[in-house]
Amino acid sequence: MEALSRRIERASEFFLCCLMGFMCTIVFIQVLSRFFLPFSMVWSAELARIMLMWVAFIGASLGLKKGSFIAVRFFVGVLPRRVGTQINIIVQVIILTFILLGLVHGGLFLEFLHKTGQISAQLKLPMYYHFGSLAVGFLFMFIHALSILARMLLDGLQAGKESNL
After folding, report:
1. CA-wise closest residue to 64 among 90, 92, 105
2. Residue 119 forms beta bridges with which residues?
3. pLDDT tens for the 165 residues of the chain, in order
């Protein structure tokens, strides 16, 4: 699971760098065309919104993988190591449950969008391209969270064996 998580992390970093660069370029060209050229690219705002959704959800999965989210570590740090490890595992299970709910409901939402055949206003793309970021982001978060939980469980077992020696 850790190897899959690392591959997703590397691919996500590359994807996000490319997507952010492309999004900045499109927005910059749109601003220039609006003020200095006789035409405006009306589709660019919609494309930038789609890309921003992908950046947000894929970026959130990277934030989870790298431990960049806010955490209250003061209380866990004061407790004995074994109790702190158990609390961290419980918190990780709660996080996994939330992510699983997001993944399931994101998948149901994509299915709804696919069945209804909704398309975007300017680009005429199916709306599930927009909101596919939701399911992919939650899937990546789920894989990363499982990897983190597995590492915590293994570290907890190893710490337990060391304390028994």
Report:
1. 92
2. 126
3. 889 999 999 999 999 999 999 999 999 999 998 888 888 888 999 999 999 999 999 999 999 999 887 776 777 778 888 888 888 899 899 999 999 999 999 999 999 999 999 999 899 999 999 999 999 999 999 999 999 999 989 887 676 565 555
Tell the burial category of 53 from Cβ atoms under 10 Å away from its Cβ (0-12, 13-18, 19+): middle
CA 18 to chain CA centroid, Å, is: 16
Q: Which two tokens mark 62?
A: 């990277």
- Beta strand spans in 48-107 (E): none
Structure tokens at 159: 């710490």
Which string of DSSP letters, residue by residue, matches 64-111?
HHHT-S----HHHHHS-HHHHHHHHHHHHHHHHHHHHHHHHHHHHHHH
pTM of the model: 0.87
